[in-house]
From TrEMBL, chain A:
Organism classification: Bacteria, Bacillati, Actinomycetota, Actinomycetes, Micromonosporales
Source domain of life: Bacteria
Coiled coil (residue ranges): none
Pfam families in UniProt: CO_deh_flav_C, FAD_binding_5
Protein name: Xanthine dehydrogenase family protein subunit M
SMART domains listed in its UniProt record: CO_deh_flav_C
TrEMBL record, chain B:
Name of the protein in its database record: Xanthine dehydrogenase family protein molybdopterin-binding subunit
Keyword Heme: no
Record domain Aldehyde oxidase/xanthine dehydrogenase a/b hammerhead: where: 22-125
Keyword set, alphabetical order: Molybdenum, Oxidoreductase
Lineage: Bacteria, Bacillati, Actinomycetota, Actinomycetes, Micromonosporales
Domain of life from the UniProt record: Bacteria
Tagged with keyword Oxidoreductase: yes
InterPro entries, alphabetized: Ald_Oxase/Xan_DH_a/b (IPR000674), Ald_Oxase/Xan_DH_a/b_sf (IPR036856), Ald_Oxase/xanthine_DH-like (IPR016208), AldOxase/xan_DH_MoCoBD1 (IPR008274), AldOxase/xan_DH_MoCoBD2 (IPR046867), AldOxase/xan_DH_Mopterin-bd_sf (IPR037165)
TrEMBL record, chain C:
UniProt keywords, alphabetically: Iron, Metal-binding, Oxidoreductase
Superkingdom: Bacteria
Matching PANTHER family: OXIDOREDUCTASE WITH IRON-SULFUR SUBUNIT (PTHR45331:SF2), OXIDOREDUCTASE, IRON-SULPHUR BINDING SUBUNIT-RELATED-RELATED (PTHR45331)
Domain 2Fe-2S ferredoxin-type per the UniProt entry, residue ranges: 5-81
Residue runs in coiled coils: none
Any Pfam family matching the protein: Fer2_2
Name under which the protein is recorded: 2Fe-2S iron-sulfur cluster binding domain-containing protein
Amino acid sequence: MRTFRYERSSSVSGAVALLAEAPHGAFLGGGTNLVDLMKLGVAQPDLLVDVRRLVSDRVEELPGGGVRIGAGTPNSECAAHPLVRQRYPMVSQALLSGASGQLRNLATTAGNLLQRTRCPYFQDITTACNKREPGTGCSAIEGHHRDLAILGTSPECVATHPSDLAVALAALDATVRTHGPGGERVISMTELHRLPGPEPQRDTVLQHGELITAIDLPPAPFATRSHFRKVRDRASYAFALVAVAAAIDLADGVVRDVRIALGGVAHKPWRAYRAEELLRGGPADEERFRQAAEAELADARPMPGNAFKVPLARNTLVATLLDLAGGPR
Amino acid sequence: MTTPVPAIGQPLDRFDGAEKVRGLAPYAFEHPVEHPVYLFAVQSTIAVGRITAIDCSQASARPGVLAVLTHQNAPRLSTDNGELRTLQSDEVTFRGQIVGGVIAETSEIARDAAGLVRMDYEERPHNVDLRGEVPGHRERLKVPDEVLPIFPMDTSEGDVDAALASAAVRVDSRYSTPWYTHNALEPHTTIACWTGDGFTLRLSTQGVTGIQAAVAGAFRLDPSRVRVISPHVGGAFGSKVYPRADVVLAAMAARLVPGRPVKFALTRQQTFSQTGYRPPTFQRVRLGAGSDGRLVAIEHNAIEQTSKIRQFAEHSTRATPSMYAAPNRRTQQWVAELDVPTPTIMRAPGEASGMFALESAMDELAIACDLDPIELRIRNEPQVHPHFQLPFSSRNLVACLQEGARRFGWEPRDPTPRARRDGGWLIGTGVAAATYPVLRLPGSKATIRVGPDGRYLVLIAAVDIGTGTRTALTQVAADALQVDIEQVDLRLGDSTYPPAAEEGASAGITSWGAAIHEAADQLRQRLTTEHGGTVPADGLEVTADTPDNPYLKQYAMHSFGAQFAEVRVNERTGEIRVPRQLGVFACGRIVNPKTARSQLLGGMTWGLSMALHEQSVLDLRFGHVVNHDLAQYHISSNADVGAIEVHWIEEDDPYVNPMRTKGVGEIGIVGAAAAIANAVYHATGVRIRDLPITLDKLLPGDRPGSEVGG
Amino acid sequence: MSTEVEVTLRVDGTPHRLTVDVRTTLLDALRERLGNTSAKKGCDHGQCGACTVLLNGRRVNSCLALAVAHDGAEIVTAAGLALDGELHPMQRAFIRHDAFQCGYCTPGQIVSAVAMLAEAEAGWPSAVTMGEPAGVGSGGGDGPTVGTVTDDEVRERMSGNLCRCAAYANIVPAIQEVARR
């Protein structure tokens, strides 16, 4: 680990200003991924601005039925919060299916969204990686890519985004509130993360020094009927091979509205707009669910080592929708 | 004098429990030392080639850096062991090889500076692809040297090809097991100190005597100048038996900073290239049987790998000649020398891999013969050891199978695959046999000293790697001395005690216990004959070797067991869960039922982990294990482990050793993966012959609309 | 650029003022600077749980927490759970059930188990509570969130503590013995 300067600030704007002057600096939240990457030499910030106690660590109700999650809220507290559990069960489920009890206590909400890919080559500084060192090449495309992306990949990068929470938030049309050198702004969760394209080094649309201060969940009455389903190689404490976040609004066996996002399949949480479109107004039955899943995955471009993710994603999506359609309430 | 209650057979809590649950039991790296320095290793980033230039200037310039070790300034060593020739030349023979080390005032500085050491290489092509060696490259493969002298590497009886050609039922299947990494939770650590005329080494090892000899030899020292201490070991499973580059590097560093203890811990990532592994195997099993299931031929071949610097071969086919009666049998084994790190012993070396193949094949044969797999095994039970033609000292495989079937609820079982379902999960059950030889390792002595206070001190340079050795050997000593266990103090883990064979091969009690037993016998005898049964004022001390066992040439000695598993496979996702495992074992007398049960339980869970999770993924282009951490190399987590039952058959075998024990550390894993694979077949109709059984192998990818195995 | 900082840590009830490298983790501060080696280093990346301590009352991986970022923190290790040498009920249960072998993951398991029961007691859900369908036992389901924890709940909540000796099947009943008091 390279040494660094450690700073705190008494205000968000102060923290943002500190980082604005340090092009190689980084914000420090819970540190569960940043410290991990610093030990590996993958991240080499020369300044850490500790924002853990600077941003809100609370979950609050918003007027109109939405919920605001302070960026510093530990993952465990967010998952346990009654507002989150009752109104957006899949957000709790996503958080609880990630990492471990210990990590969830340390990791923050914003940090969860900003964690880096677990592509093995990204994490190993002795191998080439365009995300870590642009222009060096992608070792994964012809290497070990079992866990990597099948949708939205580029010739430069096939990484997946590892966050489960981000998948649930993308499905719910959550928004991210930020404070950056240019002021405050609100970014849609579906727009926060990027596809790799020719610039895989950029995970998100955030500018350097732009700090996430809160996540807003819009009112979504039918999100009470939602589920996050994660399929992985261990029963727990493992990253997703495929995850599905889905919420469904049913009336008389017909899908009135639906929200779906897939995890473990792309460089960003994959909002399944095409499947949603196909499902809206149609029957809530297995055949239609399968058609929707296949339509969503029609553009999948798997590699030899992760081709199984296409049928796995399809089957997991169908199973999740069936569970929601047949489940109580 | 009243006869004390026998200690053997008591389910005593392990003696170091109160220290371990508080974290106070000191592991090697935790010994308090004054003014330590820290060492961090530099590893090669090529697999094969030569170092052409080294630039340490940036690293050396870091404040707090004391020295940078490379082959250019390292002490010259004297050793034939390629594993120990660390920094002796500019040659690189595998990726990740230790090519340097940085010594600094703190661990943070050492690690940072290690990243600043620049090495230029002249790279040569490498070959790390074992699969590529399988077809048509036999001329490059070698028959490995024998691992244990009593088991010939290859065996052949009768005419296997003719018997197979005329057999009514045949199975011919190929299996593979991947590269497994031990991943003891305590990474390999050392505190090395040069004391002016020798070393004090505190390290996590399975054998202080072996490390002492290796280090003394390499540094041209009298062994008495090297003291090796290993009080507690945070798991080992074979990875800490042989000395390797890490110990050498730490000792070299200690020479550079006399008087200052050098603390050296491998990172988790480094353990994947530095500490050995179970070699991957490609195996073929051919079975021929009559329609009644009686075997006429068994053939078992295995190809595995070793490095180019030292040969290590797992004897994967070793168990096969001990298992089933068949007049025609052949086992053959080859090893490919590749540009990889040297593999090593790993829990049940040979049996774990080989019995996955044989016991999967037996399940396939049962199905082909339309026989219950337990009945098939009973029908092929041999009267004497099929290869040695010796009687077994005791053999209770059938009893284990029958007892297990009763306890597991094996009957009634519809053998039809996909016959049982529960809410979207397919359910199956499977069985497999287990065996492990009773082994005795040479080179152990024990000293027992009795004081006038009536307390007995037992000294032996054995180690407790978590198996409960400390507790079990004390029980052995108490009974051999015929005293209350409270009167016995046992000390181990220090090379200043009488030498001991390494902890391994489930041979601890047989090797060390027999030496203790012998010393106790002699001590009791001398007390009676020379001192009238009273301890003399200055005490009495006896040292004895592990005695020879005259029965070794008269009997074949093996543990046996039966493994049962129930699996659930998700019909849509292929996810696999193992809610239930049950094992019944016949492994002689059980010294401590509590710790022995834990050993068997641990072994069975290793079998689960082997069946479903573990695999070191090699990148053929670079030659290294890609998934080199515990997030990517999966071992079973708590959530993966269901209900596990462990039982044993009462067995009183007077031939194996004076304690009548057979060892319990290895056999728990043997056959466990096969039982799970067989259960997966029963659940889904899909036969997985290549471990691990991951969900993608149960998920048909090319047929839209299809479900698992359908 | 100064890379050393002063921090105060209260460890197992005793305050310590120490100077550390900014890069020093809580785990290394405990083990290499304060001589408290109760928490163990198994992976150094939050992937095994051997370093688990209570940080201001919550279980965390001390290997991923920088000491400088936790100035003033209250830390409890497994050593600190045993007040005045009297073992914590969880520690006694681990011994009785032989819920460990090599002992290296054990302090982390025990700290984690104690905190985990407090989390369950506080009504914090787990993936199993929230309907994770893939447990090894009954198949999961909607277990109660307050009061008793099912075996599947314990397994899920303890999955951040790997045990390579694989004492899991003893760890679960040891924890349940304490939970049911």
